[in-house]
Design goal:
twelve-stranded mixed beta sheet
């Protein structure tokens, strides 16, 4: 055993890169496939009805299994972990998982994406467990629009309470994700921005994307980020900001009057595949290397036949080394046939 005090007991992350030379830096972990909302662009009620069969507990990865994958991913270079769903806060024990992630060497950022409905009473516990930040999905501050976009299940007051509680708990900066759809909520964007200006929260306007197979996506429903930017600029002058880190998906801007920052995520009109450093682990243990993937690699079987960490490391390494995904750069939004290909549903792997 080494007695050199300068020698780290942990193996340094390997410099693993995919076929397009992109590193593996981010792991998004879906803890379950259920949600308390029925947003039409993700889990429309007519498909995900009361009798819909979600994953059984035995089909989902256990916390121990998730942590094994997370530890191996960290050794391959992952430093950022994000918990998603479905709605991750439906898992009442999630602070326990966060505690496990927080002690993994090399992981310096743990975030969680939620619709915010269940956040207020849990924010302090999440922060105490080691969570750093939260991202809230909030598509409008118009009560009627919000209600419709949540599948008639969302309570706006509860979400705003959740944002306030997250702020008080230090889960900041709070990021607020807004999926903008033409003719649905685009007319409410400026009001939402005005509400959060000066709050320290970062609103990110997201182009409506062709994720999954259930949302009836059409190009004419997309409001290009360029058009949104022009609308915001006409109201509040903006200045472009540099990226916080390589692979950041949002193009950042700040208000010239000092009232904060906003971002634009433009997967349809300005794809950013070239910098993508994210892998996604579904609740049933399938690893996907693209949000728009139509297939992934099942890790659950390897985990449950007692594969050791060396074998698991080899599996993850091979998945990433062979990765060549760049769906958004190759898509042709104007061609309807381009969207016939079956893709994994967003509720299974988060956003």
């Amino acid at each position: 055993m080494s007695t050199d005090p300068t020698e780290s007991p942990e193996k340094a992350p390997d410099a693993i890169r995919d076929a397009l030379h992109r590193p593996l830096h981010d792991l998004r972990i879906s803890v379950l496939d259920q949600c308390n909302f029925r947003c039409p662009y993700c889990m429309p009620e007519d498909e995900f009805h009361a009798n819909y069969e979600f994953l059984k507990r035995s089909q989902r990865l256990t916390y121990d299994e998730i942590l094994r994958v997370a530890r191996v991913a960290a050794r391959l270079g992952v430093s950022k972990m994000r918990l998603t769903g479905g709605e991750p806060l439906l898992d009442k024990n999630i602070p326990q998982l966060i505690e496990g992630l927080a002690v993994i060497p090399g992981v310096d950022d743990i975030a969680l994406t939620t619709n915010g409905m269940l956040l207020a009473p849990k924010a302090d516990q999440l922060a105490a467990a080691g969570l750093h930040r939260v991202t809230i999905s909030l598509d409008s501050l118009d009560k009627d629009v919000f209600r419709r976009m949540s599948g008639d299940r969302g309570d706006l007051y509860s979400v705003l309470e959740g944002i306030a509680a997250a702020t008080a708990a230090g889960l900041t900066p709070v990021k607020i994700n807004v999926v903008v759809q033409r003719g649905v909520n685009d007319h409410t964007v400026l009001d939402l921005l005005e509400h959060f200006r000066g709050s320290g929260h970062i609103v990110r306007l997201i182009e409506f994307m062709d994720v999954g197979n259930q949302n009836g996506w059409r190009l004419d429903q997309v409001v290009p980020s360029r058009q949104l930017l022009e609308g915001v600029q006409a109201r509040w002058p903006l200045r472009r900001l540099d990226q916080n880190y390589p692979g950041e998906v949002a193009r950042r801007y700040e208000y010239l009057d000092g009232e904060g920052e906003i971002g634009f995520i433009s997967s349809v009109t300005e794809p950013f595949c070239g910098d993508c450093s994210r892998a996604r682990l579904s609740a049933d243990g399938v690893l996907y290397t693209c949000l728009f993937a139509n297939q992934g690699t099942d890790l659950r079987e390897s985990l449950r036949v007692a594969a050791d960490d060396e074998e698991l490391t080899d599996v993850l390494s091979q998945i990433w080394l062979q990765r060549g995904d760049r769906y958004s750069e190759l898509r042709r939004p104007e061609v309807a046939e381009a969207h016939v290909l079956r893709k994994v549903e967003m509720y299974r792997i988060g956003g």
